[in-house]
């Protein structure tokens, strides 16, 4: 099957010991960094200077999930910070095609995220512009929420479109991924799984990553 990746979210890590928290997930495929601005979502986390430093010390590639307004202005600066991939929300962008191209031109993989109630169909022609499509499986803003099964048909439709157009686009899910829900998301077609509480909430994040990976690999 398609390669399965586990990207732990540092939203559930200890923010005062980030370097040590990164060392605890050194067997992950990438680290997922949630950037929130209290406008696009009702929560606030970290911004560019901190993300830039995390990228410098991380043992694994950094994947930034930007839950911020005015993303057309901000996302390119994250690409310039040398991140492996930068994911913006389509609801926050006025020019998603231009933005995806700009991210790639600056050397980052281009990711585009959809909130749970945002349909994927209007964006299917954009797949060749993307390296990753993120389908949110909770309303963005907080860790530890329950997986929304209502998003499963959308994941299936996105996977069918990716296979149908033959593009090399990863399909990521984020929110409520546990050892139980990961199977449903994988069967629907997701291949990159973000997990916050299901990794950092466990005594051994490394073992949690291995166990999730085994269940997410079909
Ligand atoms: C939510 C964030 C997620 C969050 C996931 O808005 O985008 O990345 O950290 O946390 P869990 O895995 O606990 O649902
Ligand atoms: Zn996220």
UniProtKB/TrEMBL annotation:
Q: What is the lineage of its organism?
A: Bacteria, Bacillati, Actinomycetota, Actinomycetes, Micrococcales
Its biological purpose is as follows: Catalyzes the reversible epimerization of D-ribulose 5-phosphate to D-xylulose 5-phosphate.
Which CDD domains does the record match to this protein? Answer: RPE
- Which amino acids does the record list as binding substrate? 9, 65, 141-144, 174-176, 196-197
Q: Which cofactor does it need?
A: a divalent metal cation; Fe(2+); Mn(2+); Zn(2+)
In its UniProt entry, the species of origin is given as: Arthrobacter psychrochitiniphilus
What does the record list as GO biological process? Answer: pentose catabolic process; pentose-phosphate shunt
What is the name of this protein? Ribulose-phosphate 3-epimerase
**Could you tell me which PROSITE patterns the record lists for this protein?**
RIBUL_P_3_EPIMER_1, RIBUL_P_3_EPIMER_2
Record's InterPro entries?
Aldolase_TIM, Ribul_P_3_epim, Ribul_P_3_epim-like, RibuloseP-bd_barrel
Q: Which gene encodes it?
A: rpe
